[in-house]
Amino acid sequence: MSVITELSLTCTPPPALARDAMSTADRRARAEALGTKMLDFAEQWCERRDDGETYWDFEEAMREVAAELGRAATELMLSAANERYSAGLPARCTVGDREFRRCPDEPRSFNTWFGIVRYGRTYMRAVAGGAGFYPLDADLGILSDRISPALLSTAARLASRVSYGEAREILGWFVPQPPATEVIEQTVLGFGHHTDAWFEQAPAPEDDGDVLVVLTDGKGVPTAKDSELEQRRGPRKDRPAAPSPRHRGRQSRADRGPRPRKKKGDKSKNAKMSNVVVMYSLRRDGELLLGPINRRVYASFGPKRHAFEFARREAEKRGFGPGTSKTVQIVTDGDRDLHRYTDEYFPAAQYPGRVKTVDVMHVLEKLWLAGCCRYKEGTPELAAWVKAQEDLLYADRANEVVAELRRWLESTPKRGPGNKGRRKRLTDTIRYIEDRLDMMAYGTFRELDLEVGSGQVEGAVNYVVARRCDHGGMRWIKERAQAVLHLRCIDINGDWDAFTHWAVDRLQQEARADGTRPRLQTQHAAALPTVIGTAAMQARADDKDGGHNEPPSERAQHAAITTQHTPPSSGSSTDHATDAFQVGAQDAPGDSPSDSAAGTFRQWMSHAIIQLTSMVFAAPA
């Protein structure tokens, strides 16, 4: 028998019933024996190993023994803690107007990083009926999910990056008992019920820059049609088992029947738009703006206006609230709705340093399409013409680009082969540029070292949304996809550990408040976010900080701005952009309001836990 096999046999845990009957002293002796056996094995392995056994074999054996030792130590801790609680609990106690009686310990299986452990804990049952509670679980923060919060957190984190099945497979490489796929999905949905509150109360980043950049874009996610959902949720058909996966696929196609051939323009993706916001700041260093600093990403299936509500709220947290003289640059792809919401949530009267920018690459793409009306696609003449127009854009002479396109339009006959399409492309390009001339001062933007493109949000769209939610065969429900996107954003922002601890604490506090046992997993997704409007946002801000989120010096500036500032008129792009930078751009960041508050829980469960805990620790050890 090899030393590896010998060690494995000694680590076989006792049956569940035998472990339930073990005392704390017995558990300690077992843990000490396992620890001594592991150390002896490590010290003597080279002398006792068989031929052909390598370090690989040693490490595999040590993993199993370390996991068993972890389970034994966990059971020892839980047993000792329960004995401590049991010694201080009375047979009967009254909390508020309710009476509880102590019941015998109830054994429980609990999945941890080391595997499944068994432990017992005292149950306090309500004499008059109703919910009781486990004082040990409540004090240690153990959920009713039968899985440790750390293991659930890791499973959900993996599921924000890969599919649920892959998350379970990857987790199984490292833990003895990975949670089931359904458990991982329900954990993601459970965390999803806390993400909106997290984003709203998350603290502002420290050591922020002098210029705030806000970029927005959208991405379609494949969603299930009503017919697909009806088929998913309908009763299962009774049919004989297929002999193999190949034949099961044939059987499904035969039951479904032939699908009609798609017509031109038909799509099966049934995409629903998600909105992505990227925010970061830039720090001035001479003539340069260094960054990005404190980059934050947010994605949601809420309406576009909700994305701007998030951006406005984050801007206020970071000291870029209404009345600030610091620069706030909003970069979009030219979407009219986004420009309208920019004026709604970042109005020029409240943000005199606001800069609206259209991504230059979207403008150039329009020019490539328009250039094909005069030059053949793919020719050097077309490339040279587009390069000349690009030079005009970077010289703040976008109006000359429009003038040339108008000359082309006037010289293109209304009749003739292909002229209708050419005139439409030219008209659309002229209208696109003319309506956004005040956002195309790319030469000025470059001189001030500001952004001229939306590459940051384009990359975020692909990384946050497409890499997780836009794969072949995926058909999402928006509310469920939203939970994944929110968790993915929290992870990318570097807030995963802070969020998961906060969410579990919040869940336990809510459970204590209404007298229930805390459970993270749920089968129901949280509702999509709604729009509260600028008036409600301002009212919330007033409630938090008395109507101001700027230092006194900037509050005075805000008062002067709101009474004297007049929004710039639609003139040349250079003048409009230059006016936005007349106010000093190097002001110190404003203080962000603190919205943390200590909650009080007056329901009977909270009082019960507090009083029983005090009884336990007041009793002699």
Description:
The chain has 621 residues and is of the alpha/beta class. It folds into 4 domains: 1-85; 89-202 and 495-546 and 593-621, no CATH class; 205-225 and 268-359 and 453-477 and 550-590, no CATH class; 361-436, no CATH class. Helix content is 52%, strand content 13%. The protein is built from 24 helices and 8 strands. It has helices at 3-10, 16-20, 24-48, 55-88, 135-140, 149-159, 164-172, 181-201, 226-233, 245-256, 304-317, 336-345, 360-371, 380-393, 398-411, 419-434, 442-447, 455-469, 478-492, 496-514, 533-545, 552-564, 573-579, 604-618; strands spanning 92-95, 98-112, 115-126, 211-222, 271-285, 288-300, 327-332, 354-358. The strands form 2 sheets. It has a 5-stranded mixed beta sheet, with helices on both faces. A 3-stranded antiparallel beta sheet has the order 1-2-3. α6 packs across α7 (164-172) and α11 packs parallel to α12. The longest helix has 34 residues, at 55-88. The protein is elongated, with a radius of gyration of 32 Å. It starts with a helix and ends with a helix. The model is unreliable at 547-621 (pLDDT under 50).
List the helices and strands and how they pair.
Layout: H1 3-10, H2 16-20, H3 24-48, H4 55-88, E1 92-95, E2 98-112, E3 115-126, H5 135-140, H6 149-159, H7 164-172, H8 181-201, E4 211-222, H9 226-233, H10 245-256, E5 271-285, E6 288-300, H11 304-317, E7 327-332, H12 336-345, E8 354-358, H13 360-371, H14 380-393, H15 398-411, H16 419-434, H17 442-447, H18 455-469, H19 478-492, H20 496-514, H21 533-545, H22 552-564, H23 573-579, H24 604-618
Parallel strand pairs: 4-7, 7-8
Antiparallel strand pairs: 1-2, 2-3, 4-5, 5-6
Helix pairs in contact: 3-4, 4-24, 6-7, 6-8, 7-8, 8-19, 8-20, 11-12, 13-14, 13-16, 15-16, 18-19, 20-24
